[in-house]
Specification:
This protein has about 260 residues and is of the alpha/beta class. About 35% of the residues lie in helices and about 10% in strands. It contains nine helices and six strands; from the N terminus they run αααααβαββαβαββα. It has a six-stranded mixed beta sheet. α6 links the parallel β1 and β2. The longest helix is centred in the first third of the chain and has 17 residues. It is globular, with a radius of gyration of 20 Å. The model has no long low-confidence stretch (mean pLDDT about 90).
Amino acid sequence: IKCACHGVPFGGAKGGVRLDKGQVSAKELKRVCEKYVCELSKKMFLSSNIGVLNTDLGSTKVEMGWIYDTYKILNEHRDLNYMSAVLGKDVLRGGIDGFVESTGLGISTGLKYFLNKNEFCNFFSIPIGIKGKRVIIEGYGEVGSWTHKYLQDIGFSIIGIIEKESGVYSEKGLDCKVLKAHWKEKKSFIGIEEYECMKGEKAHELLFHDCDVLVLGATEATINKENVEKVKAKMIVEGADAPVSYAAQKYFESKHVPF
């Protein structure tokens, strides 16, 4: 749908390799990326005018850089626009400065716009303005971490963040710099001393904690027919691909909850 709105002739298909990045070396991961591109190229599934690759769950500009390098070697001679066949690569490879931050910035800009519109807030019975609004974010990758920063910068209070194996909570708000410093060293919230830390299933229960805005920035169908009735957020923001299932969408519509 997003491609169609912008007149881009791609359908938005998904593809990838299933593996645990924590269980393989950087060398092995690089070989997997190279082999993936080789197989796609052999079948003519990948090119600047047929299908492009973009970063998603588990991939960063590092992996996209390896993918781009491999595609360039294989196809530079037959694809004049080879640089546009791979998105999410670093700037030195022709990537766009600000690409990583763009989703988080878009979420913060959208929330600021809607929560300052009288028509929107009155229609959904939400107090107008940003001040005092409490936010919980699911995911702490490129979407979640940058969303945290930009929302904090404009005055939201981020009270909870959930990632794969842990979560962190503070009713007084979580400081972006404190979390980023701990995450950079540990790649997890486990062991953080400044805030309450939760593990496993208890961390994921933060999805159902009372808040003004729930930002879903990780996996598909996080909120579904099995758990949607436990959600207490007054507003849902989708920062990932289809994190709210169709059944959950219909439920939110019936309850007059914007998403």
